[in-house]
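Our preliminary data section would be incomplete without showing what the modeling component actually yields. Below, a chain of 55 amino acids is followed by its predicted structure, encoded as tokens that our downstream tools consume directly.
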Amino acid sequence: MIVIVSAIAGIVWGGYQAKRRGGNRKDMAQYAAGYGIAFTLLGLVATVVLERMLV
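Predicted structure:
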């Protein structure tokens, strides 16, 4: 669940950042993909850490 939420948050944040910086659709797609991948990896690490701590 953390991974999915962080992926969606990364996509939204990346699109917002590109739009704020004056980017076009391609820039927004590229930022959304990059931020989505980065946030997904962070969410995956957080999930693994939480799982190890709780079990």
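The chain has a mean pLDDT of 97. Helices lie at 2-20, 25-54. Preliminary results of this kind motivate Aim 1 of the renewal.
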